[in-house]
């Protein structure tokens, strides 16, 4: 199986889908000549030309609005926003239009659009560039939300997102672009709503969102080697649709759940998932569902403060241990 | 909200075991009301609260052993346990919601549980019983499995955070046949059969542990010696016959020994003392302990100021104390404060015996069986007399041979002319 970086996997997905379907096109700030702020669109302008790889002005609401219009008339736009923070400028187009149009017109039109954007902290980019807003988009009916954590998922899920007839919020993690991983050759699109069990275990279920799936896996190794706790690590990969079956089945086996996310605690992905778990698996729980989240503050710029503001391996280990004993 | 802590019910008490809660969470309690039965190193006793209020939480479970000063329960003012948990929840980093209508939150003290459907909720034992038991802290899965497996949650000790009963506890209990030995009775286990046959291991009760520790301590530290004296009890036997006609209960020979010893102690102050930390301690009160077999161990209740009490009074005190020991109701104050001990095995036909000093007391007097023996009288003729052996066990650090001998001689003298005891 070939090994490639997360950004290369995304690039391959775009290239393959553009080759396969002429209605697919890319649009965003600096995606053409500059080849993307994170080089995800590298080589696309050269291969597909200006008509299908379009540089836009710095105007997020307009970029997304153009995408919604293009999608309504039959194209498959892939819009890149430079960070998830900037997507807030396009909230009106995303929430009031992209998500709602299909419902407003009784299914006569659909919006087969992908909005890609990187989120997350770790590069000292301060509060205007480093947040994790998965929860905001998860909140909106009509939007699908993908949060890939590996190169293979980045490719498989982006292909699936482009092929899907619903608008998809595709959140990449800024610190993962350089990560290498195996990607199946000639792999097709992944399926939305299918969680990945990253590590099997019987003692506690740890659900990691986006990059936190990786943190959770590391924590699981520590739990096994130092605490004789065999954690099962689940990466949901897509938050809507969410593969509750896999999560509930795991919780019924382990009787304990810990949810790890980089976003804020209140109204977060973990808060939502904790509610779902207790609704669906209450009689199988041996401990309260624990959440490990980012700090309840705007992301600091200072390196030590930034590091302190999102979860690390030890926080996950602590949370998992607390489901077994007083810590 | 006031916290009830494990009380120090005796001087030597370091920890106590909650044998039984006499109240439930949510109960109103009044100052002076007994709320728990507590086992200390010396006795089982009831503990009374010193505040009015509502029991909001029973922190310790029945069978829990906690050090003195640990919180065993919380008593709040006003009504209801639900309040505090609501308050705590509200404090937790929730932004203030002033615009919320207040009546949406306030009245729900304890969220009403929906009526369980009969097929959904197996008959778990943790539901508050009609006599008002507290809710057992158990995880949802433990609760469900306990119902399915017929395990009594209230009988389990939780191993989860904060003592929560978790799945593993229920599984372990189901393996044991759903039974757990009550905390008060020591658990017996059986070991591998060897050359000695199958071994049964018994845990010591707190009282047995105390006896074990104190006896070993005494034998290891007190250099003891014994003095034996034969006492002619014929006059005492005669006296007792006459007392029987007028007194109920009639004083026993042991009561007479207690009284005689008490009078002798008053005149031999070091016998009524102790060697402790390089000093002699001489006590102003004469408090004679009587060794009583009971509670699967040895208990020594005290007859206070025995030198001041009449023989009849001593007899009454002794009966009451012995009864209490046998029923396990003797209180720490009743087994404290002894300055001397009398131990009697005469009823078993033992002629004389040595014993271990009850530390830190200076001496202990043992009483053998009263028997008719052939003894020469003043004129050398062999006659049958009622004879009894007394053995004084002395701590040589405070009592020397002559001290002990003087004391013992005085006891004999008093018993042989017992009218002075009846005064």
Give an account of the 3D structure.
- The complex is a heterodimer of chains A (327) and B (423).
- Helix content of chain A is 36%, strand content 18%.
- With 327 residues, chain A is an alpha/beta fold.
- Chain A has 2 domains: 3-182, Thiamin diphosphate (ThDP)-binding fold, Pyr/PP domains (Rossmann fold, 3-Layer(aba) Sandwich), CATH 3.40.50.970; 196-322, Rossmann fold (3-Layer(aba) Sandwich), CATH 3.40.50.920.
- Chain B is of the alpha+beta class.
- Chain B has 3 domains: 1-112, RNA polymerase II/Efflux pump adaptor protein, barrel-sandwich hybrid domain (OB fold (Dihydrolipoamide Acetyltransferase, E2P), Beta Barrel); 119-203, E3-binding domain (Dihydrolipoamide Transferase, Irregular), CATH 4.10.320; 207-420, 2-Layer Sandwich (Chloramphenicol Acetyltransferase).
- Chain B has helices at residues 82-91, 102-105, 140-149, 167-175, 206-221, 234-246, 253-267, 311-326, 401-416, and strands spanning 2-5, 15-21, 28-29, 34-39, 44-48, 53-58, 65-67, 71-76, 188-190, 200-202, 224-232, 273-276, 279-282, 288-290, 292-294, 297-299, 302-303, 340-344, 363-367, 371-376, 382-395.
- In chain B, 34% of the residues are buried.
- The chains are: A alpha/beta (327), B alpha+beta (423).
- At the A-B interface, loops of A face helix 3 of B.
């Amino acid at each position: 199986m070939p090994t490639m970086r997360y950004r290369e996997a995304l690039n391959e997905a775009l290239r393959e889908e553009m080759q396969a379907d002429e209605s697919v096109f890319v649009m965003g700030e600096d995606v053409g000549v500059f080849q993307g702020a994170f080089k995800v669109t590298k080589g696309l302008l050269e291969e597909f030309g200006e008509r299908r790889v379009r540089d836009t002005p710095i105007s997020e609401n307009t970029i997304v609005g153009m995408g919604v219009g293009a999608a309504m008339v039959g194209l498959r736009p892939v819009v890149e926003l430079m960070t998830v923070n900037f997507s807030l400028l396009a909230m009106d187009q995303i929430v009031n239009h992209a998500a709602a149009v299909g419902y407003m017109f009784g299914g006569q039109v659909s919006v087969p659009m992908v909005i890609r954007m990187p989120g997350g902290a770790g590069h000292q980019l301060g509060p205007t560039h480093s947040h994790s807003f998965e929860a905001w988009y998860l909140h909106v009916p009509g939007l699908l939300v993908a949060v890939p954590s590996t190169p293979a998922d980045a490719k498989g899920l982006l292909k699936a997102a482009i092929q899907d007839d619903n608008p998809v919020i595709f959140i990449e993690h800024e610190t993962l672009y350089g990560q290498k991983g195996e990607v199946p050759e000639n792999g097709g699109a992944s399926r939305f709503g299918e969680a990945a069990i990253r590590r099997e275990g019987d003692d506690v279920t740890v659900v990691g969102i986006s990059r936190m799936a990786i943190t959770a896996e590391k924590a699981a190794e520590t739990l096994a080697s130092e605490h004789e706790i065999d954690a099962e690590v689940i990466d949901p990969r897509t938050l809507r649709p969410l593969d509750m079956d896999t999560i509930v089945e795991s919780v019924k086996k382990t009787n304990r759940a810990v949810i790890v996310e980089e976003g804020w605690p209140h109204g977060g992905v973990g808060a939502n998932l904790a509610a779902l778990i207790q609704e669906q698996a209450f009689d199988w729980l041996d401990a309260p569902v624990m959440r490990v989240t980012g700090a309840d503050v705007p992301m600091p710029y200072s390196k030590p403060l930034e590091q302190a503001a999102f979860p690390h391996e030890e926080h996950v280990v602590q949370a998992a241990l607390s489901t077994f004993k007083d810590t | 909200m006031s916290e009830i802590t494990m009380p120090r019910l005796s001087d030597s008490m370091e920890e106590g075991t909650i044998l039984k809660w006499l109240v439930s969470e949510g109960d109103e309690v009044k100052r002076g009301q007994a709320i728990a039965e507590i086992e200390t190193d010396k006795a089982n006793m009831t503990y009374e609260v010193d505040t009015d209020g509502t029991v909001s939480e029973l922190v310790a479970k029945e069978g829990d052993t906690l050090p003195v000063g640990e919180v065993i329960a919380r008593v709040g003012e006003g009504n209801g346990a639900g309040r505090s948990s609501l308050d705590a929840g509200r404090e937790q980093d929730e932004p203030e919601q002033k615009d919320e209508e207040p009546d949406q939150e306030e009245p729900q003290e304890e969220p009403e549980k929906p009526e369980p459907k009969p097929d959904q909720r197996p008959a778990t034992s943790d539901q508050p019983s009609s006599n008002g038991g507290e809710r057992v802290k158990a995880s949802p899965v433990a609760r469900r499995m306990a119902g399915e497996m017929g395990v009594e949650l209230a009988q389990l000790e939780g191993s989860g955070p904060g003592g929560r009963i978790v799945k593993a506890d229920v599984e372990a209990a189901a393996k044991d046949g759903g039974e757990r030995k009550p905390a008060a009775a020591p658990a017996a286990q059986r070991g591998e059969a060897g050359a000695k046959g199958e071994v049964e291991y018994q845990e010591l009760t707190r009282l047995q542990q105390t006896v074990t520790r104190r006896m070993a301590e005494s034998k290891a530290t007190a250099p003891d010696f014994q003095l034996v004296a034969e006492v002619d009890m014929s006059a005492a036997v005669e006296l007792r016959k006459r007392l029987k006609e007028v007194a109920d209960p009639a004083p026993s020979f042991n009561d007479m020994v207690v009284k005689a010893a008490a009078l002798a102690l008053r005149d031999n102050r070091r016998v009524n003392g102790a060697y402790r930390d390089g000093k002699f301690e001489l006590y102003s009160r004469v408090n004679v302990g009587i060794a009583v077999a009971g509670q699967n161990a040895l208990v020594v209740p005290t007859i206070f100021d025995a030198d001041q009490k009449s023989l009849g009074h001593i007899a009454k005190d002794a009966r009451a104390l012995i009864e209490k020991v046998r029923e396990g109701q003797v209180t720490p104050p009743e087994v404290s404060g002894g300055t001397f001990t009398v131990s009697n095995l005469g009823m078993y036909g033992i002629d004389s015996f040595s014993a271990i000093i009850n530390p830190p007391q200076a001496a202990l007097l043992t009483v053998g069986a009263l028997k008719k023996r052939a003894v020469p009288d003043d004129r050398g003729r062999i006659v049958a007399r009622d004879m009894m052996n007394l053995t004084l066990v002395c701590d040589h650090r405070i009592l020397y041979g002559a001290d002990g001998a003087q004391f013992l001689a005085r006891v004999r003298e008093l018993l042989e002319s017992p009218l002075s005891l009846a005064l």
